[in-house]
Each structure stands twice: as structure tokens, then as C-alpha cells.
Amino acid sequence: MDSTGARQEGIDAARNAGTSSSALWAGVAALAVALAGLYWNVIPHLVEQWAHEEDYTHGFLILPISLYVVWEKRRELKRLAPEPSLAGAGLLAVGLFTLLLGSVGAELFLQRSSLILVLAGLVWLILGKAFLSEVAFPLAFLIFMVPLPAIVMNAIAFPLQLFAAQSATFCMEAAGVPVLREGNTIVLSNTTLEVVEACSGIRSLQALLALGAIYGYFTQKAAWKRWALIALSIPIAIVANAFRVAGTGFLAYFIGPEAAQGFYHTFAGWLVFAVAFVLLLGAGGLLAKLSERPAAASKAVS
Fold first, then answer.
1. Residue ranges making up the domain that contains 195
2. How far apart are CA 165 and CA 242, in angstroms?
3. Is residue 26 domain-resident?
4. Cα four-point dihedral sign 249, 250, 251, 253
5. Same domain (yes/no): 130, 176
6. Do both 56 and 159 map to the same domain?
7. Same domain, residue pair 181 and 84
């Protein structure tokens, strides 16, 4: 009699677990449909911009990387018990208001970035603060898939154009190449190069910032080191682009104007970005050693 009752309790428990699991997945599906309805006109245009504008092609990689980070944390997430919190409703409301504000004002950045706030609010509301804390980084990382507002891009791009032109001119003058700079235009004896917005380095800056964030997350334990690596990616990207422009100037002067276009120009861009990434890896290695030295010294003393 006892064994029969225990067996029945096990069956009931399994049935209840299956029912709760089905209810959970049904709820997830309902939320997915609701989000698709809210952002039906936002996400397709975002993907279209990734596909047609070279500055944002890295956007295709951001979501898969975020999902991979969540998958890496699957064991930690399984240990957590869902603790729904009404505090998440406040963050959800902020996200929905941001979406509304962006829609009314036709501001794409607000519409697109509101999705991150909405997702964070839903996680907090349904699963609790502990879950939100665990997935905070992959959620925040999604900001790299959102193109910056045009006003911000213009404010950043032109100073970068001037810096690249100034740095390239300095390098060529130091090498004995006759050169004249007029704003963001570099005048050589055999051609004229204009450092346009596409050559400002804003694309490599955004991509290297994203790489610095994900590289720091996986390799650095201390939060300040992760932020330091992200901060270091900014000057590395800017200086690397300046050298790329200088290299283009040297190619145009010694080989010919055609060397500043087409394959050579594209190859130089990829090569310099690879060098910048290697420098970022080196900076990460140095930051990692900062914590090893004190630990090694304490072991030696003991």
C-alpha cells in the first residue's frame, strides 16, 4: 500500500513538473509573440542597416555572442530558483516608455535600445534579480548592435578624421615625404587624399570596443580590469586608424594613386585592425599579470 502511494506521488509530481514546464514555455512563447508585435517594424530595419552599411556589419555577430555567453552560464542559471519581482515592472515600464518616445519622435536609437531595457525588465519581473544579475553582461552587450544616433556619429567622426589626417601628415613629413594638409585633406605631389567619414576609424572603434568588452569579460576577473580593457580599446583603435591613413598616404606617394583605392585600401584596413586586436590581446595579458605578481610574492613569503 505504501509503495503504491509513493509510486502515485511520483507520477503526480512528474505530471505537475511537466505541466509547470509546459506553462513556462507557453509563457515564453507568448512573450516572444508580444515582443515581435512591439518591434515588428524596428528589428527588420535594424537588420537592414547592418546589411547595407559597412560601419554596422558587426551587428550580425552581437546577438550570437550574447546568446553564447548566456549558454556558458547555463549551470549557474539552473541553480537559481525563479523569484518574480514587481521591481522589474518599473524597468519594463521605462523600456516601453522609451520605445513610445522613440516612435513619437522618430528616433531610431531610442526605439532600438529600448528592446534591451524591455528584456531586462522582463527577466527581473519574471525570474528575479538574481537571474538579471547573471545575464546583465550579455544583455548590456546588445547595445553594440544598435547604431549610434547620427548626431553622435557626426560629433565623433569629424574629430577622428582630423586626427587621422594630422597624424598621417606628421608621419609622412617625418619620413621626408612632401605633404600639405588642409583640414581632413592630404595633398601629395602626385595625388590628393581626403580622409572621409568612412576612413575616420569609427567602424574599427565600435568593433574593437565590442571585442574589448567580450575579451575582458572572459579573461579578466576584476571588474576594473574589464573596464580598463574597454577603455584601452579606444586609443588603440584611434592610433591604429591613424597609422592606416598614413600607410595609405605612403602607398599613394611611392606606388601611385591607385594604391589608395580598391584592394590595397581594403587590405590595409583589415591588416591594421588585426594589429589593433593583437595590441588589445597584449594589453589583456598585461592586465592579467597584475594580479599574478602579488599572489606569487605572497606564496614566496609564506
1. 151-288
2. 7
3. no
4. positive
5. no
6. no
7. no
Q: Which amino acid is at 80?
A: L
Domain membership of residue 253 (yes or no) is: yes
- Contact (CB, 8 A) for 248 and 179: no
Name the residue type at position 1: M
Per residue in 28-81, pLDDT tens?
677 777 777 888 888 899 999 898 887 788 889 999 999 999 999 999 988 988
Domain termination site, one of 146, 162, 188: 146
Residues 120 and 157 in one domain: no
Could you list the mean pLDDT of each consecutive 10-residue stretch along the chain, which spans 302 residues?
52 48 62 80 90 84 94 90 89 93 90 94 91 94 90 85 90 89 87 80 85 91 90 91 86 79 72 86 87 51 46
Give, as one character, the DSSP assignment of residue 42.
T
Of 93, 77, 94, 79, nearest to 132 (Cα)? 77
* 209 contacts 234 by C-beta, under 8 angstroms: yes
Domain end call among 129, 146, 163: 146
pTM score of the predicted model: 0.80
Identify whether the C-beta of residue 59 lies closer than 8 Å to the C-beta of residue 203: no
CA distance 102 to 107: 5
- Residues 194 and 164 grouped into a single domain: yes
Which residues fall within 8 angstroms of residue 123, CB to CB, at 6 or more apart? 88, 131, 132, 135, 139
Distance CA 137, CA 123 (A): 13
**What's the total number of domains in the chain?**
2
